Each structure stands twice: as structure tokens, then as C-alpha cells.
Amino acid sequence: MPVTISSMDGLIIYFTDMTQEELFKKLIAHSKEYGFIFPSSEIYDGLSAVYDYGQMGVELKNNIKRYWWDAMVKLNENIVGIDSAIFMHSRIWEASGHVGAFNDPLIDNKDSKKRYRADVLIEEWLAKQDEKIEKEIAKAKKRFGDSFDEAMFIETNPRIKDIRHKKETVTSRMVQSLNDGDLEEVRNIILDCEIACPISGTRNWTEVRQFNLMFETKIGSVAEGANTIYLRPETAQGIFVNFLNVQKTGRMKIPFGIAQIGKAFRNEIVARQFIFRMREFEQMEMQFFVRPGEEMKWYEYWKKFRMSWHKALGFGDENYRFHDHDKLAHYANAAADVEYKFPFGFKEVEGIHSRTDFDLGNHQKFSGRKIQYYDPETGESYVPYVVETSIGVDRMVLQVLSASYAEEKITKEDGSTDERVVMKFPAAIAPIKAAVLPLVKKDGLPELARKIIDDLKYDHVCQYDEKDSIGKRYRRQDAIGTPFCITVDHQSLEDGMVTVRHRDTMAQERIPVADLPKMIADQVGFRPLFEKIEK
Ligand code: GAP
């Protein structure tokens, strides 16, 4: 993070400089210290890749879910929501292809005994090649100054040409071998690229094996003859199997969508990076049912809509990009990820997939029920095609935490200095909207503060805090990202005015108590975000 300086109201704020790695470590510690995210089962030494949301985390997560649900269901009259069960008939997962094909190719290093996803090892090697190219460009830029022609340099520099050629060859070998399920070739690529285990540093690799990611459990008692069922690895199938129910009872006309938020489970072998890759996580998915042949038009539509939903949060357009899939999932004919620049690099937050009629067609085949739509406009019956948007709630929480965390050194007008950690959440998704702080614990100030909270709490999650100095209380609210601190002082009892302190600028203003509900409501609503979404 670069050092930047800004000045307002006589304060100078220096954003402290730190590496992305330091930022990520601090973020994890901060998330625990302030009640956002705890490791699961901590008093029993934890459970790998499973996390619990604390008192702040759950508010943040609920607000993110509300932002998604309202943008999808409330703003689109042809999208409705459902909430399907996690347990489903096991044949559903045969029809969806997950029993046969929801696998990760795994490889072990014989010296460190560490297990890796073979495709991820190759992808990381490819990313390193990009870094090498970037470095060459940066060096040349320095050497040639203003006369540097980057496009020409990339086209003609022999070293860059060589790296790009190697990258293209490895990418096409990887895509081909993963699509063909040729695990020996996947291993050969790892050997040919001379990829070493980050722990042992050796290239002593086992064979590559497929590993199915679904968790199994049993339903019914043993006496009845228990059956294997699966914890769902995606929420989407609950939507597909309810397609006819919703279409008929809601008299839905194509194109229309069904949205759902719910838990999903994957037995991730390589679980890393905090809540980025978890074994139990939450998804927000929407299946949009369209006429066959119109899927690419809707695929582009939803790509644009979903990207602008992300960008509306104001974390910087340059921190987002699309990544088109090289290897398509077993159900897709086109797919792209929305990637966000996390402290550990650009990574997937959301997928937009054109799933064809694969799922509905297979459920029709496996269940023996006719799953078709009669199109009154064309007079034809068909199995609809599907464009899906699928985003992980937890990855979204991580995106919001990473983008909002800031450390600042403050020089005040009198020359004294201070430091603060502040979560600069967009106000609409901040866990606590306002804190009400009586300056002292006596003289009727707590009573007025309580009266203010009692009014605001019908509309907003608020906190009352009377402990410690006002400065300490401001820092506590900064650390959990509360946009407004409302201070009640002796003057308030006389003139009915309070001091409102704004989190990001630290600017303070006096406003009448009666104006508080409107002032807060105007700034914490979702509407300004929704208005930025491009359709
Ligand atoms: N229905 C399609 C589907 O599930 P996916 O790309 O496998 O597609 C969609 O997952 C989103 O779910 C991802 O973009 C990611 O945000 C989230 N996700 C997937 N696996 C996850 C995991 N192990 N931990 C946290 N989030 C995950």
C-alpha cells in the first residue's frame, strides 16, 4: 500500500505503508479481535478451513446478503427467491454430474508429505510467468523513459516472446489434459515446468489422483437400511429441481430467474487463505432460464450487471477484472469469473456460467418427469437454457474486509499525533450504523443518549458506549467501521443538539437530535448503490 497523505479540518492523515502480506495477517488478527470472524471449535484447537462469524461478522454478512438479495430479487421483477433444503435425493447429484465429475486432481510431495491441487500448482507457475513479463516491462520502462513503446516491446523482446510462448504451450496442455482426464499428462506438465514443492523445495512428486469433493452422510437408521446422501456442494441444484414448481405456481414467463442464498459444503483438500476457501461456506446463486439460442445474450447481460454490482461498492474499478475460464466445468459452454485484487492477488469472487440445458435436461432424464416450458410466444415446448450467477458470501466478506481495512497516523492541529485502525465499510453494509456516546456518565447525559438510541434502534443497529475517554470510544467504533458517532454533552440538554463525528473524515458537526433519523437514513440506505448498477 503506498503512503498517501490527505488533509481535512486541520488534520493530516498518513496511511501507513505495509506489504500486502502484512495487511492480510493484520486483517485476520483484527477480524478476531473485534468479533468479526473466529476459527471454528477454537477451544478444541480449531477445525481446519471452518470459521464462525462473531457479533460484528454476522451483521456485516447479513448486510452483504441483503445487498445481493435486493439487487437481484427486489430490483428485477422477473426474479423470485426460494430456500431449498440442504439434504436432497442422492440421484440429483448423479444427474448433475457431481458424483462422477466433481473432482480435484491432487498430487503429493513425497518429501514434505504435503498435498496440492495439481491444476493450482500449474496455474501458480503460469502466474509467475506473468510476473516475469511484468518485471521485464518495468525494467525497460525505466531504461527507455518517455520514449518507451510498451506494445512494441512486448511484441519484439525475445525474452518476453519466449516466456509467452512457453505459457501458451503449458496453458493448452493443461486445458487439454484436464478436459480429457489425462492425469499422467498433468503430472508431466508439473515435471516439465520444474515445479518444486514450496515446503521441501524438491520435485519428488507422486502420481496425480482424482478426489471427489462431496461430503457424504447417511439418512435413516441402520435398521431401515440407511441411504447415502450428500451435503450439497452448490445451492443451484435446489433451484433446478424446483423449476417447475416455481414456474407454475408463480406463473413465470421466460426469461425469468430463481435466486437462493444458502450453505454449501466441499471437502477442500487444499484449504488456505482464511475464509477464501472453506469446507462449509455460503453461496448466493441465481439461475436465469432463457430460450435456447438466447443464452449468450443473457450471459453478457449478467456479466455486466454483476460486475457493476461489485463496483458500486466503491472499492476501485481497477481492483476488478474478468477471467474467462480455460477449462469449462462439466455443465458449461461459457464461463467467466469476476476477480477481485485480494492482498494475495487477483482471485475469483463470483462465477457467471452459461450452463446450457445440461441440468434441467439431465433431471428430466434421471427423474423420468417432463421438465419443459411451453412458450406462448413461439408455440413451442422446450427445455430452457440457463445462465447462472454464483457468488460466495464468505469471499465477498473477505473482499469487503480487505478493501475497508486502513491504518492511519494522524497529526492534529496542535502538532500531537495519534494512530487508528479504521474499517472504511460502505455505510450501507457497516455492521453498526451509529454509536451514541454520553460525554460523561452523569448529569442526565446517559438518559438523553438512551432516548436517542431508543428511537434509532427501530431502523438501525446502534451501540451505546459510556466507558473510557471519548477518544478511546471513537477508536473502538473506527475499528468496527461505525460511520457515525453521536456525542451527547451538557450543551445537548439545553439546545437539543448533538455532535456527529464522521468516521472517514473525522469531521464533526452539531445537529439537532430531531434531524438524526433522517441524516442517518439518507446515508446508510442501499438506494445510492442500486442506482449505480448498470443494466
Ligand atoms: N453453482 C456454480 C458453482 O458453485 P463455483 O465456481 O464452484 O460455481 C461459485 O462456486 C462461488 O462459490 C465461487 O466464485 C466462490 O465465491 C464460492 N466458493 C466456491 N468454493 C468455495 C469455498 N471452498 N470456500 C468459499 N467459497 C467458495
In short:
By secondary structure, the chain is of the alpha+beta class. The chain is built from 18 helices and 25 strands.
What features would you describe in this structure?
With 535 residues, the protein is an alpha+beta fold. 38% of the residues lie in helices and 26% in strands. Helix 5 packs antiparallel against helix 7 (158-180), helix 5 packs parallel to helix 8 and helix 7 (158-180) packs antiparallel against helix 8. The longest helix has 27 residues, at 118-144. It is globular, with a radius of gyration of 27 Å. The chain starts with a strand and ends in a 5-residue tail after the last helix. Mean pLDDT is 93; it is low at 1-10. The structure holds glycyl-adenosine-5'-phosphate. Glycyl-adenosine-5'-phosphate binds next to strand 12, strand 15, strand 18 and helix 13.
Which descriptors apply to this entry?
alpha+beta; 5-stranded mixed beta sheet; 18 helices; 38% helix; globular; disordered N terminus; binds glycyl-adenosine-5'-phosphate
